[in-house]
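Journal club prep — side note

Before the paper discussion, L.F. wants everyone to see what a predicted structure for a comparable chain looks like in token form. Sequence:
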Amino acid sequence: MAYPNLYFPIYDKILINPYSKNEVFMKNTLTSLSSSLYNQDFHLWVESTIEILQEKRFAELDIENLISEIESMGNNDKKSIKSNLRILLMHLLEWQYQPEKRTNSWRTTIKEHRNSLEDDFAASPSLKNYFLEVFNECYQKARDLAASETGLSISIFPLECPFDPNLVLKSDFFPE
């Protein structure tokens, strides 16, 4: 299959054939192009990186940015766990300490954040360990959020989480 020369406007009109056999020049040029492409058009960089990986042209990879993106993916999963756990715990506290204000909306929010956590665990089972690691930290933040949202004194909410980590994930658990 013949490949056309490519035009990358970010390179001041450099025309190259990325499939050239001049390997030293091409390796440096393509790595540089890929690195700049990352900053200019992320989606195109992703597509290009996928193609390079599929074709096993590893010398052309933008390793630095690829590592950064893989790290970012892992961090995003962890942020999702923390965010969903904080909101879940906050609403469980509100549910327990403001029974007169319970609504279907609260119930739905609790269910949705449980579902999001379960989805994360299904995609990456090892995240359950992370959930357990950050449970107490998230509870402290949820306690503060619950006090802010309810207008109740933070001292109303226990210093230690009153809920078992496995129990908060159970679909039928709503504290009384």
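L.F.'s comment for the group: The chain has a mean pLDDT of 85. Keep this in mind when we get to the figures.
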